[in-house]
């Protein structure tokens, strides 16, 4: 089993990252480099979270083995180990041989740092660039990141000059490397505490509110009103951008040097706009014959960027609106079925997607009623209580993990109790649950936050390339300090425990933070205590109230604006529900008509086809007979048909008016006005 657990987790974590990326990204439409870079960033961060418990269990086994093999004289040497147990040290089932974990952590850590500080920011600018060539996009990305990279280089250069001039500092390469790691972890820890304080309160509260059907339905109505406003804004913005594209397309003709750029922009437009612009295009025309002011390439690049953004936003709002409608209809169905006497769940609308037969067999309407109306609220309440308990333990441990005598951190107490009996399964499960809960609190906040329309992770393949890359940057910057914070909570970090024990492989690559004592003994220990203040602020919704005061509508039960938006959203959902009901009724009527009269219509069509064949044969046999006898009646029948199709509104006729009768105008006879009626040439081509 040596190394088998490591290989298994590497494979499983890859599929987990691939599944999440498939849910938020679009593999068919987005660039492959964006997908690969985001997948690599997510994969490395998830890998650190899942592999770290194996590193802890392996380190505890190595400490036990060292304590058993060392003599009392050696115990006062480089390693001060725990008192050896009388029983032998059992090798854990997930033991990883020496030398593998340091190399593994070094590759994972430095790859993630290269992604978050160099590659992903460059790819962000490349993805948002409106350039028409690879060279142009790279040039734009370099210019946009020049200030970003230049600031860091300036700070690092000033620090190197200060170290070289000051004789008191004698830093080596390893110490410079440690300082760089400490700077990155400090930035990540600053952001980590902010996100963690929000997630520790909001995740249990969201699950508790998930048991309230009325609460969820009201919040869905609120979201519907806000999303309709955003949807209308996106449609209006798209119309304005398409109007600019139309003007540019009409001004730049086919032989213009910038026509290729215009064609690239047109390919990014929706299909209906492409067809509309294609119909309005003139024939080939030399652009030198007309003295027009043509747009520059720089303005076309800006327009291309606006088209990409507006089309993505419009498509995202359309998909989110349909998803929100389904959610609202479902919650209304749950509210109606709660009082059902038959205890069978009845849907107002049938699912548009085909259901799995296996799920349909086991998840019957009766089972669905018991789960949705009876069991699910209680399950969410129990889960909320469990998550709230974990949150309290985390907050307590964050405030007391620096205390080593006595040990006040509950996570450290659990690990040390298991370490005495060398129960590696318990150690790995405790470590995994702890770091998994921390990562859920942090990562879920990353998925929930929205920075206007620049950063927004939308599910169902509606996240743009810029947001995907930005999420990869955040994950790579948050995961290393989160893992260090976890090792501090469990007292596996020698900087916290103040013991000269064998460190984990993960902390060994970070180097000794004693180079910067004010960070190791000050910021890393006392800054996480701010999570208490952030949890209190989140519990009382101080951030939500501040945003509401600034004009950003937030869901607040005691706000008049919230009540107005709920009423507006309820009316929007009711309108969409009536529309869908009419559509389904129409489809049902057509289906019933087809099932009832389908065979009769087929027989009627066969009879008509047989009659036509008879008439055609009769016409062929009598082709030499005079047709003047039938011509008058046929013309009269055609005239009657045309008169029936004409508009019945009264028309005023005079000598100069034009007769609208198609038979009169086609015959070209002389009218009382003294002129022949004929269609002018300009009117013939008006619709072309």
From TrEMBL:
Residues 576-688 are annotated as: Disordered. It is a multi-pass membrane protein. Residues 224-251 form a coiled coil. Residues 618-634 have a biased composition (Polar residues). The chain crosses the membrane at residues 6-21, 33-52, 103-126, 146-165, 177-201, 378-396, 425-446, 466-489, 523-542. PANTHER family: G-PROTEIN COUPLED RECEPTOR-ASSOCIATED PROTEIN LMBRD2. This is LMBD2 protein. It comes from Oxyruncus cristatus (sharpbill).
